[in-house]
Amino acid sequence: MVGLMLLSLHLYGEITVVGRRGGERLWDLASRWWPETETVSAPAAERIRADRRFRSQGVRLVRGEWEKHPDATDGIVPARAVLLSPFDRLVYDRNRAEALWGFRYRLEMFVPQVKREYGYYVLPLLVGDQVVGRAEPRFDRKTGTLELLGAWGDTESLGDALEDLAAWLGATRIMG
Protein backbone atom coordinates (compact mmCIF):
# COMPACT_ATOMS: atom_id res chain seq x y z
CA MET A 1 0.00 0.00 0.00
CA VAL A 2 2.84 2.40 0.86
CA GLY A 3 4.55 1.53 -2.43
CA LEU A 4 1.43 2.48 -4.38
CA MET A 5 1.16 5.76 -2.47
CA LEU A 6 4.82 6.60 -3.19
CA LEU A 7 4.40 5.78 -6.87
CA SER A 8 1.31 7.98 -7.09
CA LEU A 9 3.03 10.91 -5.38
CA HIS A 10 6.03 10.43 -7.67
CA LEU A 11 3.87 10.40 -10.83
CA TYR A 12 2.18 13.62 -9.71
CA GLY A 13 5.58 15.23 -9.13
CA GLU A 14 5.15 15.67 -5.40
CA ILE A 15 8.10 13.48 -4.43
CA THR A 16 11.26 12.29 -6.18
CA VAL A 17 13.98 9.70 -5.73
CA VAL A 18 17.06 11.46 -4.35
CA GLY A 19 19.32 8.48 -3.84
CA ARG A 20 19.57 4.87 -2.83
CA ARG A 21 20.66 3.02 0.26
CA GLY A 22 21.47 -0.49 -0.92
CA GLY A 23 18.54 -1.48 -3.11
CA GLU A 24 16.14 0.88 -1.34
CA ARG A 25 15.03 4.21 -2.84
CA LEU A 26 15.38 7.37 -0.78
CA TRP A 27 12.50 9.81 -1.31
CA ASP A 28 12.12 13.52 -0.61
CA LEU A 29 9.79 16.34 -1.58
CA ALA A 30 10.39 17.28 -5.21
CA SER A 31 10.26 20.99 -4.31
CA ARG A 32 13.48 20.57 -2.32
CA TRP A 33 15.37 19.17 -5.33
CA TRP A 34 13.91 20.59 -8.54
CA PRO A 35 13.59 24.26 -9.50
CA GLU A 36 10.22 25.84 -10.19
CA THR A 37 9.35 25.61 -13.86
CA GLU A 38 6.65 26.87 -16.15
CA THR A 39 3.74 24.48 -16.53
CA VAL A 40 2.55 23.88 -20.08
CA SER A 41 -0.56 22.17 -21.36
CA ALA A 42 -0.39 18.60 -22.64
CA PRO A 43 -0.82 19.70 -26.31
CA ALA A 44 1.94 22.32 -25.92
CA ALA A 45 4.22 19.72 -24.29
CA GLU A 46 3.58 17.34 -27.19
CA ARG A 47 4.46 20.10 -29.72
CA ILE A 48 7.70 20.82 -27.84
CA ARG A 49 8.54 17.11 -27.74
CA ALA A 50 7.77 16.67 -31.46
CA ASP A 51 9.96 19.67 -32.34
CA ARG A 52 12.85 18.34 -30.25
CA ARG A 53 12.49 14.90 -31.83
CA PHE A 54 12.45 16.49 -35.32
CA ARG A 55 15.55 18.57 -34.50
CA SER A 56 17.49 15.63 -33.01
CA GLN A 57 16.62 13.19 -35.79
CA GLY A 58 16.95 15.66 -38.66
CA VAL A 59 13.99 14.37 -40.68
CA ARG A 60 10.37 13.47 -40.23
CA LEU A 61 7.69 11.90 -42.36
CA VAL A 62 4.85 14.29 -43.23
CA ARG A 63 1.98 13.01 -45.37
CA GLY A 64 4.21 10.36 -46.96
CA GLU A 65 7.08 12.77 -47.75
CA TRP A 66 10.36 13.23 -45.89
CA GLU A 67 10.88 16.72 -44.50
CA LYS A 68 14.37 17.89 -43.49
CA HIS A 69 14.81 20.04 -40.37
CA PRO A 70 16.10 23.54 -41.31
CA ASP A 71 19.14 23.10 -39.02
CA ALA A 72 20.05 19.66 -40.42
CA THR A 73 23.24 19.54 -42.43
CA ASP A 74 23.96 17.17 -45.26
CA GLY A 75 27.37 15.64 -45.55
CA ILE A 76 29.37 12.54 -46.17
CA VAL A 77 28.60 9.71 -43.78
CA PRO A 78 31.56 7.42 -43.03
CA ALA A 79 31.09 3.95 -44.51
CA ARG A 80 31.91 2.27 -41.20
CA ALA A 81 29.85 -0.64 -39.93
CA VAL A 82 28.36 -0.63 -36.46
CA LEU A 83 25.87 -2.73 -34.54
CA LEU A 84 23.19 -0.50 -33.03
CA SER A 85 21.56 -0.86 -29.66
CA PRO A 86 17.84 -1.64 -29.94
CA PHE A 87 17.37 1.66 -28.09
CA ASP A 88 19.54 3.76 -30.43
CA ARG A 89 17.71 6.89 -31.67
CA LEU A 90 18.05 5.68 -35.28
CA VAL A 91 15.86 2.60 -34.70
CA TYR A 92 14.05 3.36 -31.44
CA ASP A 93 11.03 4.62 -33.39
CA ARG A 94 10.31 1.36 -35.22
CA ASN A 95 7.86 2.95 -37.69
CA ARG A 96 10.42 5.61 -38.65
CA ALA A 97 13.14 2.99 -39.17
CA GLU A 98 10.82 1.02 -41.42
CA ALA A 99 9.83 4.12 -43.41
CA LEU A 100 13.47 5.29 -43.80
CA TRP A 101 15.17 2.01 -44.64
CA GLY A 102 12.40 -0.53 -45.21
CA PHE A 103 13.82 -2.17 -42.08
CA ARG A 104 11.21 -3.85 -39.90
CA TYR A 105 12.69 -4.35 -36.46
CA ARG A 106 11.50 -5.54 -33.10
CA LEU A 107 13.29 -6.75 -30.03
CA GLU A 108 12.25 -10.38 -29.68
CA MET A 109 13.45 -11.13 -26.15
CA PHE A 110 9.84 -11.10 -24.94
CA VAL A 111 8.54 -13.16 -27.86
CA PRO A 112 8.21 -16.91 -27.23
CA GLN A 113 11.17 -18.71 -28.82
CA VAL A 114 9.03 -20.62 -31.33
CA LYS A 115 7.56 -17.33 -32.62
CA ARG A 116 10.85 -15.42 -32.98
CA GLU A 117 11.67 -14.38 -36.50
CA TYR A 118 15.38 -13.82 -35.78
CA GLY A 119 16.66 -14.25 -32.23
CA TYR A 120 16.59 -13.27 -28.57
CA TYR A 121 18.67 -10.05 -28.72
CA VAL A 122 19.27 -9.12 -32.35
CA LEU A 123 21.03 -5.85 -33.19
CA PRO A 124 20.56 -3.77 -36.36
CA LEU A 125 23.65 -3.42 -38.58
CA LEU A 126 24.29 0.13 -39.82
CA VAL A 127 26.76 0.58 -42.67
CA GLY A 128 27.28 4.20 -43.63
CA ASP A 129 23.82 5.73 -43.66
CA GLN A 130 21.87 2.53 -44.30
CA VAL A 131 20.56 -0.17 -41.99
CA VAL A 132 21.46 -3.23 -44.06
CA GLY A 133 21.16 -6.23 -41.81
CA ARG A 134 21.02 -7.63 -38.31
CA ALA A 135 23.08 -9.88 -36.10
CA GLU A 136 22.74 -11.70 -32.81
CA PRO A 137 26.00 -11.52 -30.86
CA ARG A 138 26.35 -12.97 -27.37
CA PHE A 139 29.19 -12.13 -24.99
CA ASP A 140 30.37 -14.70 -22.46
CA ARG A 141 32.09 -12.71 -19.71
CA LYS A 142 33.65 -15.80 -18.12
CA THR A 143 35.53 -16.84 -21.26
CA GLY A 144 35.84 -13.37 -22.83
CA THR A 145 34.26 -14.72 -26.01
CA LEU A 146 31.97 -12.78 -28.35
CA GLU A 147 29.92 -15.36 -30.23
CA LEU A 148 27.84 -14.69 -33.33
CA LEU A 149 24.63 -16.71 -33.01
CA GLY A 150 23.09 -15.55 -36.28
CA ALA A 151 23.21 -12.92 -39.01
CA TRP A 152 20.68 -11.78 -41.61
CA GLY A 153 20.66 -9.35 -44.55
CA ASP A 154 23.75 -7.75 -46.10
CA THR A 155 26.38 -8.80 -43.57
CA GLU A 156 29.46 -8.16 -45.74
CA SER A 157 30.76 -5.56 -43.24
CA LEU A 158 29.64 -7.40 -40.11
CA GLY A 159 33.18 -8.51 -39.24
CA ASP A 160 34.27 -4.89 -38.71
CA ALA A 161 31.28 -4.19 -36.49
CA LEU A 162 31.96 -7.34 -34.44
CA GLU A 163 35.61 -6.36 -33.97
CA ASP A 164 34.57 -2.94 -32.66
CA LEU A 165 31.97 -4.50 -30.36
CA ALA A 166 34.51 -7.05 -29.09
CA ALA A 167 37.02 -4.29 -28.33
CA TRP A 168 34.38 -2.26 -26.48
CA LEU A 169 33.30 -5.29 -24.44
CA GLY A 170 36.87 -6.36 -23.73
CA ALA A 171 36.38 -9.69 -25.52
CA THR A 172 39.55 -11.69 -26.12
CA ARG A 173 38.15 -13.72 -29.02
CA ILE A 174 35.30 -13.78 -31.55
CA MET A 175 33.53 -16.99 -32.62
CA GLY A 176 31.20 -17.49 -35.54
Fraction of residues in helices?
25-40%
Secondary structure category:
alpha+beta
Order of helices and strands: HEEHEEEHEEEHE
Major sheet strand order: 5-6-7-8-9
- Given the structure, what is the number of helices? 4
Proportion of beta-strand residues: 25-35%
Query: What coarse outline follows from CA principal-axis ratios?
Result: extended
Overall pLDDT level: 93
Number of DSSP strands?
Answer: 9
Uncertain spans: none
Largest sheet: 5 strands, mixed
User: What's the Cα radius of gyration?
Assistant: 21 Å
N-to-C terminal Cα separation, in Å?
50 Å
What brief labels describe this structure?
176 residues, alpha+beta, 9 strands, extended
Describe the structure in brief.
This protein has helices spanning 2-11, 42-57, 94-101, 158-169, and strands spanning 15-21, 24-29, 59-62, 65-68, 81-83, 123-127, 130-140, 145-153, 173-175. The protein is an alpha+beta fold and 176 residues long. β3 (59-62) and β4 (65-68) form a beta hairpin.
Summarize the structure in words.
The protein is 26% helix and 30% strand. The chain has 176 residues and is of the alpha+beta class. The radius of gyration is 21 Å and the shape is extended. The termini are far apart.
List the helices and strands and how they pair.
Blueprint (H helix, E strand, L loop, with lengths): L1 H10 L3 E7 L2 E6 L12 H16 L1 E4 L2 E4 L12 E3 L10 H8 L21 E5 L2 E11 L4 E9 L4 H12 L3 E3 L1
Parallel strand pairs: 8-9
Antiparallel strand pairs: 1-2, 3-4, 5-6, 6-7, 7-8
